[in-house]
Specification:
The N terminus is likely disordered. The radius of gyration is 32 Å and the shape is globular. The longest helix has 26 residues. By secondary structure, it is of the alpha/beta class. The strands form five sheets. Strands 5-4-6-15-7-16 form a six-stranded mixed beta sheet, sandwiched between helices. Strand 1 and strand 2 form a beta hairpin. About 40% of the residues lie in helices and about 20% in strands.
Length: about 400
């Protein structure tokens, strides 16, 4: 059968090409010409590209490629969740991760026009819930939440194979660790607590949310600077850990400022020092001195929190989340207000910039855990640099 691609003849009629190749009318039998003549007036427009079918085919291919590009670009901009999105918080309700993630979920619900709901799934220092998010379909409908210091350290602990580069990061706040005691404690400042930690014959108890929690990292930071005698009492998250210190079940806590601020304002906890090299201004309380006033050699970095999608999630989903983060989260007033009220640092970022911002604290955590023997795997194998 002819390919039905027309060409104008000398008489104003059209010769049909056979098998996709243009034929010279002079080479065709007269009968064929008679059968294949089509009045030129039947065609409104004829485009000839260099007089060859190959030119027309190239034009067609280019048009198809352009159409596909436009189609993919449009789908990236138009992606919206087809059903409610689950954000798995791998810690108990009421902790710093849970509190800020609920605010983020509300802002994403407004941005996407679809509900983002929180599922608390604690266990194994956050790895249970994070594993559940990783093992769900990578379609944008299940998202992990938590601290980068935990997310990147799971392979060092051997609790999850996915390493930091397997995730796309969307960060919102950074939370410093804060050392506090019950308001009726004998220790009035960090110097007194530090002396007790150095000289006590029995371990002083500190409440902790897990092996890679803010308390665990803070205590290992102190331990690296000086010899201290303490024992961690582990709870399923920062909030129950703080409550244990308020009740006197444990002697102090080093959870995040966000997890402690309500009890501090209520007069139930006394903050002694922030794990940082600068003082912390707590709204409704005042200034908390940095731990470097007593241990100047301590190196610290902020612990970033965020939500995380597997890096192999469809690109249109990642592009949509990138756009929302850049346009609606980066300068979000609701999150800024939360950070100011909760003693947190607001710094919404994503992608490579998020990795750069959060790696210093991850390095401190991963290497402290490995060198102390708490984690069996060398961080180098997972691309985690040793802190300077």
């Amino acid at each position: 059968m002819p390919s039905r691609v027309p060409r104008a003849g000398k008489s104003g009629a059209l010769a049909i090409s056979f098998r996709g190749r243009w034929k010279n009318r002079a080479n065709l039998p007269q009968a064929s010409l008679d059968r294949q003549r089509i009045p030129a007036s039947d065609y409104l427009t004829i485009w000839l590209v260099r007089g060859t079918a190959m030119g027309i085919r190239k034009l067609a291919y280019a048009a198809m490629a352009a159409a596909l590009t436009v189609s993919f670009s449009a789908s990236a901009q138009e992606w919206k969740p087809s059903e409610p999105v689950t954000i798995i918080v791998p810690w108990a309700a009421g902790g710093s991760t849970d509190t800020v993630t609920r605010i983020v979920a509300g802002e994403l619900t407004k941005a996407f026009g679809q509900n983002f709901v929180i599922l608390n799934q604690p266990g194994a220092s956050g790895s249970v819930g994070t594993r559940a998010a990783w093992e769900a379909a990578h379609d944008g409908l299940t998202i992990a939440a938590g601290a980068v210091a935990d997310l990147g350290a799971y392979p060092v602990f051997g609790t999850l194979d996915a390493q930091l580069s397997d995730w796309r990061l969307y960060l919102h706040v950074a939370n410093p660790g804060l050392i506090s005691v019950p308001v009726n404690s004998e220790w009035q400042d960090f110097g007194q607590l530090l002396e007790a930690l150095k000289t006590s014959s029995t371990p002083i108890t500190v409440s902790s949310g897990g092996l890679s929690s803010a308390t665990a990292i803070s205590m290992q930071t102190l331990e690296k600077a000086t010899k201290i005698n303490y024992r961690q009492i582990v709870y399923e998250g920062g909030n129950p850990a703080v409550i244990s210190t308020v009740s006197g079940e444990t002697q102090f806590t080093a959870a995040t400022a966000t997890e402690q601020v309500d009890m501090i304002r209520a007069g139930r906890l006394r903050p002694l020092a922030v794990i940082a090299d600068q003082p912390l201004e707590l709204e409704g309380f005042g200034t908390v001195p940095p731990v470097t006033e007593w241990l100047p050699e301590i190196k610290s970095a902020p612990n970033y929190f965020g939500i995380y999608l597997p890096a192999d999630t469809p690109q249109e989903v990642l592009d949509a989340m990138d756009k929302v983060w850049a346009e609606q989260i980066k300068d979000n007033e609701v999150l800024k207000k939360h950070a100011a009220e909760r003693g947190a640092l607001f710094n919404a970022t994503y992608g490579d910039e998020a990795v750069k911002a959060s790696t210093p604290y991850l390095s401190i955590n991963a290497w402290q855990q490995f060198e102390s023997g708490a984690a069996p795997n060398d961080p180098t194998g997972f691309g985690i640099p040793k802190p300077e």
